[in-house]
Amino acid sequence: MDLQLRGKVAVVTGASAGIGFGTARVLAQEGAQTVLVARRKERLEKLAREISQSGGATPLVVSADLRDREAPRQVATEVLGKLGHADILVNNAGGSRPLAIDADDHLWDEALSVNFTAVRKMAQAFLPAMRERRWGRIINITGSLEPRGVNGANVAKAGVHVWAKGLSCDIAKDGITVNCIGPGRIHSEQIDERLHPTPESQAAYAAANIPMGYFGDVEDIAYLIAFLSSEKARYITGQRLYVDGGMHRAI
Fold first, then answer.
1. DSSP per position, 118-131
2. C or N: which end of the chain has fewer Cβ atoms within 10 Å?
3. How would residue 250 be classed by pLDDT, with cut points 50, 70 and 90?
4. Could you give the C-alpha distances from 233 to 65, 85, 97, 248, in angstroms and in order?
5. Residue 11, CB half-sphere, CA atoms under 13 Å: how many?
6. Alpha-carbon span 233 to 55, nearest angstrom
7. Would you give the DSSP letter of residue 62?
8. Cα torsion 92, 93, 98, 102: sign
9. Distance in angstroms (rounded) separating the CA atoms of residues 34 and 51
10. Residue from 123, 122, 135, 168 nearest 8 by CA
11. How much helix, strand and coil, in percent to the nearest 5, is found in the chain?
């Protein structure tokens, strides 16, 4: 299926590893001009070389720490200044933040900053250009599990769900869709190195919690992102879509 992404500019945050890394590769394979955003510039440059050598458009690399409140505006200024527009924004940057029940305010502020505020500010930075062109796609990577303990990321991503639904209603008339994807256990840097670092722990978790019986790959998320980024998904907005092998339990 031709998703007709050739010539579209796709900004992917958290592109140095995991879901963001895989998403940038898939979007480039579909013909999009990718913009790779993350803190680890050397990893972004390696991915950019890989995409170029595979025949994709040479990505624009933007090193930025989105916890900095000025970073989203600076990223948008650089992207729009060099490429003229942005059609697709994949808000993937973020990460788990387990917190004690009496955690200090600065820990909560950091968790909300990277997992909610950066998402909102990135969208706000690129929305004027999307609205002017009357076309855009905003896709937020969130989560799929009910919390089993206090985690600042869970709180922030719940906020993203509510914010994204409201935003989707406000800008639908402008030809812009807003959707959230909740990954399950995906082979990413965070999952494979921190949460489930051994094959045995992954197998035990999958057997107990995932109906399909195994962890997903980053491409399982990336292919859905590519579809949602296309004109073929024009009537899908304000949704939460789970890619988790059947793990999600809430109805």
1. HHHHHHHHHHHHHH
2. C
3. low
4. 31, 20, 32, 23
5. 33
6. 26
7. E
8. negative
9. 9
10. 135
11. 50, 15, 35
Pairing, β 33-38 against β 240-243: unpaired
Domain positions in the chain are 9-194+211-243
How many angstroms separate the Cα of 66 from the Cα of each of 134, 137, 208? Answer: 26, 20, 35
Could you report the per-residue pLDDT of 44-97, keeping only the tens digit for each? Answer: 999 999 999 999 999 999 999 999 999 999 999 999 999 999 999 999 998 888
In the structure encoding, which two tokens stand for residue 4, read together?
């007709």
Average pLDDT over residues 115-139: 97
Burial 33-42 (b: 16+ CB within 10 A, else e): bbbbbbeeee
Q: In the numeric block, which tokens belong to residue 88?
A: 């697709």
**pTM for the structure as a whole:** 0.94
Neighbours of 12 (CB within 10 A): 34
Calpha distance 130→145 (Å, rounded) = 32
Q: Give the distance from CA 33 to its chain's centroid.
A: 17
Tell the residue number behind the tokens 């855009």, with chain if given.
136
Residue 11 pairs in a beta bridge with: 35, 89
Both tokens of residue 78?
């650089």
Q: How far apart are CA 118 and CA 140, in angstroms?
A: 11
Most confident among 87-91, 147-151, 183-187 (mean pLDDT):
87-91
Name the CATH architecture for the domain at 9-194+211-243.
3-Layer(aba) Sandwich (3.40)
